[in-house]
Amino acid sequence: xxxxxxxxARKTRARGAAGAGGTDPGAKSRRDRWANRDRTAAAGxxxxxxVLFTVxxxxxxxxxxxxxxxxxxxxxxxQWIGLGNYRQMLADPxxxxxxxxxxxxLVLGVVPTVVLGLLLALLANIQFRFVAVVRTxxxxxxxxxxxxxxxxxxxxxRPGQGILDFLLYKVGITGPAWLSNTHxxxxxxDIISIWLSLPIAILLxxxxxxxxxxxxxxxxxxxxxxxxxxxxNIIWPGVRSMTILVVIVxxxxxxxxxxxxxxxxxxxxxxxxxxxxxxxxxxxxxxxLQLGYAAALSVLQLxxxxxxxxxxxxxxxxxx
Amino acid sequence: MIAIPRRVxxxxxxxxxxxxxxxxxxxxxxxxxxSVMTSAQLTSFPPQFIPTSLHLxxxxxxxxxxxxxxxxxxxxxxAVTVTLQWAxxxxxxxxxxxxxxRASNKVTALFALSLFIPAVxxxxxxxxxxxxxxxxxxxxxxxxxxxxxxxxxxLLFRQYIVNLPGxxxxxxxxxGSTWLGxxxxxxxxxxxxxxxxxxxxxxxxxxxxxxxxxxxxxxxSVEVMTETLAPLASSQYGGGIPENVAFAATALTTLPMVxxxxxxxxxxxxxxxxxxxx
Lengths: 320, 278
Description:
CATH architecture of the largest domain in chain A: Orthogonal Bundle
Structural class of chain A: mainly alpha
Order of helices and strands of chain B: HHHHHHHHHHHHHHH
Strand content of chain B: under 5%
Shape of chain A: globular
Order of helices and strands of chain A: HHEEHHHHHHHHHH
Radius of gyration of chain B: 24 Å
CATH class of the largest domain in chain A: Mainly Alpha
CATH topology of the largest domain in chain A: MetI-like fold
Number of strands of chain A: 2
Number of domains of chain B: 2
Number of helices of chain A: 12
Number of domains of chain A: 2
Strand order of the largest sheet of chain A: 1-2
Shape of chain B: globular
Largest sheet of chain A: 2 strands, antiparallel
Radius of gyration of chain A: 26 Å
Oligomer: heterodimer
CATH class of the largest domain in chain B: Mainly Alpha
CATH architecture of the largest domain in chain B: Orthogonal Bundle
Helix content of chain B: 55-70%
Distance between the termini of chain A: 16 Å
Number of helices of chain B: 15
Strand content of chain A: under 5%
Number of strands of chain B: 0
Helix content of chain A: over 70%
């Protein structure tokens, strides 16, 4: 999530306060006393947070890096093996395959979520009496967990019985065994994840659209601008920077679902068709007890993730 | 080109908007309807969508299946995690927003950076730390590592509190209030909207969390509902329970959040769109 750090405003204010009372020595010492107490109080207010944050976030990140140079089965002592895990990673054909699967999963999921999110937000950006009720229908799938949606959708997908096969049967198509077919398993997981992620995309786009004054769109329509021209010249500039945020939020959601849904519904199968990088890491760590190797894979995953986000952050700066 | 009257266009659009909304919410509506059907009605082909009778007994069978204990554990886990994390976030956010100390900006940047590390990346080492602290299969082991993910909340509160007027704080300080007193009597009441958004999103995240409980809470005494629910999704491979009971179990975990969403939609919308952080 993009965070606007308002450091500059704070500094200016602090300087302003110092300048105003700068000639009064009594005020200065009082302020020094306050500043001292500020530091102690700040430490007290931050300490509990920072202690937990250090133990369960910072130390694990450092530990992941350190463990990636060891071989460890969780029982004995970790053995230092230098770059051994990284060499194993390069030789392991499952790694590029898992990266490819993850990328396909992300592209097949994130692109439709963003496009549909914008289109549905455009559609729902209208005022009428029951608009709040109708928008609730758009937003409510956001509260469903991956576990619950997995139970629900495996039933919708059930070959020969589920609603999806019923709809296909109506138009004369025999549906595949969605979750146990190597070609359809990954897209099937994407569809579930799109369903879960769309509400937030619509929500964010609606917020951006509501900042575009309706008069501008009306004026353009009166000037004879068609729907496509309005979309390109008025709406897109208004939602361009929001699009990057939607992409980041959606990637984060799909990163989580690339473990949760896979583990619940397909366990990486059929024949590794849904073995995402995250699932492979989990498998290496908790099934094969190769914790050092799993840590090295985690480092790889973090670097890929950071590269994607850095790219998007750059794009966001350009878009603004 | 034939000009379509504005009125007709508007009515058509409202109809389309409503139909699309019903399609998006359909799986959820189907879940609720299916959870009170008989097994025969739910599994009939072609599928039926409107329950012909109310089989609320499905819910008591579902409660037994997920072992009521996991429902209670989910409630405990969610309530304690969110309360603890809220206290950590609002006090730290307050310190970063209104107190002057040298490392303020660096600490803020550290929290911001943590937002971009997926929890999955640190799963293995977090498990190791929890294991070394001998907290595996305990409530603290389930709760503390999640409560420690304070990046989002701290930044949300910092951003909200930065924009609160400084005069109230100055007045309280002149009156001799301590910082803790100011937090309690001035900041917490004024930051209520931020708390609403934060609680909505955190309750949702904690209630739906699957991965961390999966690795750290493997005993029935601590396992949460997402864990007992997940095996139902592979019932197609045999050994499951009747579909209508599976639907009821799923509805059991989903309905509390749906109801919370309907009651506090504004807070959820603000939380989901990360208002105040963006």
